[in-house]
Design brief:
Layout (H helix, E strand, L loop, with lengths): L1 H9 L17 E2 L2 H4 L7 E5 L7 H14 L4 E5 L17 E5 L7 H5 L4 E2 L7 H6 L7 E6 L7 E3 L7 H7 L2 E6 L7 E2 L2 E3 L5 E4 L15 H13 L6 E4 L3 H8 L8 E2 L3 E2 L3 H7 L14 E3 L1 E2 L3 H7 L5 E3 L2 H4 L2 H6 L3 E6 L2 E3 L4 E2 L2 E2 L2 E2 L6 H8 L8 E5 L11 E2 L17 E4 L2 E4 L5 H9 L4 H15 L6
Helix pairs in contact: 7-8, 14-15
């Protein structure tokens, strides 16, 4: 088969130079203040993301900015966990974030012009570090304690970290015994690290007991019962809709996982045997992911678990790798969708809200799988918490299109499924209006007629 030849020639999991020891070099064991003491003005800094955010180093850096009058510190990162200390107004003009994906505390800074947002596919991020388009003078990271041979692990956040670390001139790490030691492309030898700061705290994550609404439960059930087959390979992230979908898959068989982001929802299905990865074409027997975020209980499940394979997002999100999976079923979400199938996922009107992430990577590949059985799914509730329809005649002014109308195949709300593949605009409008909230449908039909000059129809 074509996918098999391609996979085995060029797309086996990536290897990293970071596992090779540097002879005669050992890291300095220092305090956080000592670790950042060599950082000066006009410096490009990579910050390890999400669960792995090294807050102790960020606090020490901000303290150094305060005491030494540093300026023009440029931070590049995906989502950050914990506090982001430079959101204080006193750091404006001194520390500036380049956000590859936005989170709550940095949205106001981007909106006010005091931080920047980079629209980019997750699969592309490592290449920009490798070719120095994203320069890195210093990488601030989190690792596990070294083992007897001196090997540390980057834990639950491989994503872009390996590429950034490889390109960095200097590497500073917090060493946390509570960081899960994970399998896959996750190893860095301690001799590659310049300075180590020992800490002991819980890895950043979600609280126990996420609430799922009735609408989200309905969406999960609709997806599980109508769009997920036995033997499917799943991509889905974290949050209420992915978790509700997983809850509804208890009776499925031989499911596999190939995703960019892994959350708590998979654990019960793995323990019950519903997820066993036996039918996967790529790395059968393994759950494949690039990073993970969840509860402390989830992190204990990941610790030294050989079933979970972590790898660089340039591989997990590579279109040919995704296409090679059997029955690849990708479930993503959106903020808003218009009646032609344009999906906005990174902004609310003119305000940047999140980022591209891997949605387009997976949506594109799932619709063009080598076995012809992939499914590209967008799931969202029909209305916002404030009662505004998420299905609109035209996108809100300023809203950005992440997934184009040509990529949209299945859209799911609590009212059903709109199948858009191969449909003309009139048919798409009809299908999408039929899964809008009932109280919004008459208005949407009238607006659709005004826009299309004909009535939406099947």
């Amino acid at each position: 088969m074509r996918w098999s030849a391609v996979l085995h020639r060029t797309l086996m999991p990536l290897s990293s130079r970071l596992s090779a020891p540097v002879l005669g070099k050992t890291p300095k064991r220092v305090t956080a203040d000592e670790a950042v003491s060599a950082i000066g003005s006009d410096t490009d800094i990579y910050v390890h993301a999400h669960a792995s955010t090294p807050t102790e180093l960020l606090d020490a850096l901000c303290k150094r900015v305060d005491t030494q009058g540093l300026s023009d510190i440029r931070m590049i990162h995906i989502l950050l966990g914990g506090r982001v200390p430079w959101t204080d107004k006193k750091y404006i003009g001194k520390i500036r974030s380049n956000c590859l994906f936005l989170e709550g505390s940095l949205r106001p800074l981007v909106k006010e012009g005091n931080a920047d947002y980079i629209p980019i596919f997750l699969s592309d991020m490592p290449s920009f570090f490798h070719n120095r388009s994203f320069p890195v003078d210093v990488a601030l990271i989190s690792v596990t304690p070294p083992d007897d041979l001196g090997y540390c692990c980057v834990g639950v956040n491989v994503d872009t970290s390996l590429a950034a670390i490889e390109s960095a001139k200097k590497i500073i790490a917090v060493v946390n015994p509570k960081m899960p030691r994970t399998y896959g492309n996750t190893v860095i030898h301690q001799s590659r690290i310049d300075s180590m700061v020992e800490i002991d705290r819980d890895t950043y994550g979600n609280p126990e007991g996420m609430q799922i609404t009735e609408e989200e439960l309905k969406i999960g059930k609709i997806i599980a019962e109508n769009l997920v087959e036995d033997g499917a390979t799943l991509q889905l992230g974290i949050g209420a809709i992915p978790d509700s979908t997983l809850l509804a898959m208890k009776n499925h068989k031989d499911l596999g996982v190939h995703t960019e982001l892994l959350g708590d929802g998979v654990v019960d299905l793995i323990k019950s045997g519903a997820i066993n990865n036996s039918k996967k074409s790529v790395m059968p027997g393994k759950v494949v992911t690039s990073f993970a975020f969840g509860t402390q209980k989830f992190y204990k499940f990941l610790n030294e678990n050989p079933m979970i394979h972590f790898d660089c997002c340039s591989w997990t999100n590579h279109s040919d790798v995704i296409r090679a999976n059997s029955k690849m079923t990708c479930i993503n979400s959106g903020i808003e969708i218009d009646i032609t199938g344009q999906i906005c996922s990174d902004s609310i009107g003119k305000a940047f809200y999140s980022g591209f992430g891997g949605q387009v990577d997976f949506m594109t590949a799932a619709a063009t799988t080598y076995d012809g059985q992939g499914k590209a799914i967008i799931a969202l509730t029909s209305r916002t918490n404030k009662g505004k329809s998420k299905i609109s005649t035209t996108l809100t002014e300023g809203a950005g299109v992440v997934t184009t109308r040509a990529h949209a195949r299945y859209v799911v709300t609590e009212y059903g499924i709109a199948s858009l593949g191969g449909k003309n605009v009139r048919q798409r409008a009809y299908a999408l209006i039929n899964i809008a909230h009932p109280d919004d449908r008459e208005r949407l039909e009238k607006e659709a007629f005004q826009r299309l000059k004909c009535m939406p129809s099947p």
